[in-house]
Amino acid sequence: METVLRSLLLRRSLPPLLLLACAAGAKGFLRDPGRLGQLLTLVVIGAAAWLLLRIADTVVEASYARYAAGNTDEARVRRVRTQVELIKRVLTAIVVVVAIAAMLLTFPTMRTVGASMLASAGVLGIVVGIAAQSSLGNLFAGLQIAFGDTVRIGDTVVVDKEWGTVEEITLTFLVVRTWDERRITMPVSYFTSKPYENWSRGGAEMTGTVFLHLDHRAPIPLMRAKLERILKDLPEWDGRSSGLVVTDTTPHTVQVRALVTAKDADDLWTLRCAVRERLIAWLAAEHPYALPRITTSPAPDPGTAPDPGTAPGPGPEGRPE
Predict the structure, then answer these.
(1) What is the pLDDT at residue 231?
(2) Are 172 and 254 in the same domain?
(3) Which of 69, 107, 205, 232 is the most buried (most CB within 10 A)?
């Protein structure tokens, strides 16, 4: 692992390291720096920031890869991945800000302006804090999500009645990829201020139901046996639990609920669809009387006699008696 880390670190750090060495060497050979020296100083600062970011990114990713390879707990791996992503973004923001500040301080005019700016830093900080209240709230919410373990990359969540998987978490927003490949971008403060469903919290196993509306004569015991046979043929069923009961009745139908379990939300959706399709096909082929139907009486034929007592019926020759 150490050999791979050194090789990866050398390969990624080589471009900024060469740029830094060339810029620093050229600046050292200049007798009259002038504007060229100023430009080389900016290049040195930028190359140093680039090198620092490459080193930090390589070390963090290698550490995460080593942790993920030696840990079989998927929830913990996703938690560490979320924290690693946010730590990388924080480090990147800090390095970029410091590099820009260092570049600005190389200009003599900016040093003079900086002294006056420090005098009003307190008032400016209050104004910026009020103006950026929402952004700062998202920033702290992102840190809370990263280290509070409330939601992680790869979790299956339901937000605003949309089901999907957390694809990306930043310091300010979170991306949820829905089942139909849409991306929903939401502020991270949503996940610290509003309720949502996290189906991966505490384990990815799930329990689902399949509801059928059938005739009162439906063969419930035979359906229980058929459900067990269907589940044994489906690889999505994890074998934890199953069952079939009548949960409700109406004047025309009964409501039958089949209960199934799966290892995650994707398998559960596939399992529910397969169970529903196979049960309906089996009932249509073996027990068609169990399917719901509306019983109606045919309309009277205009040529037939009306009900007794309402009008005289026709005689033997078609005349009223």
Answers:
(1) 93
(2) no
(3) 205
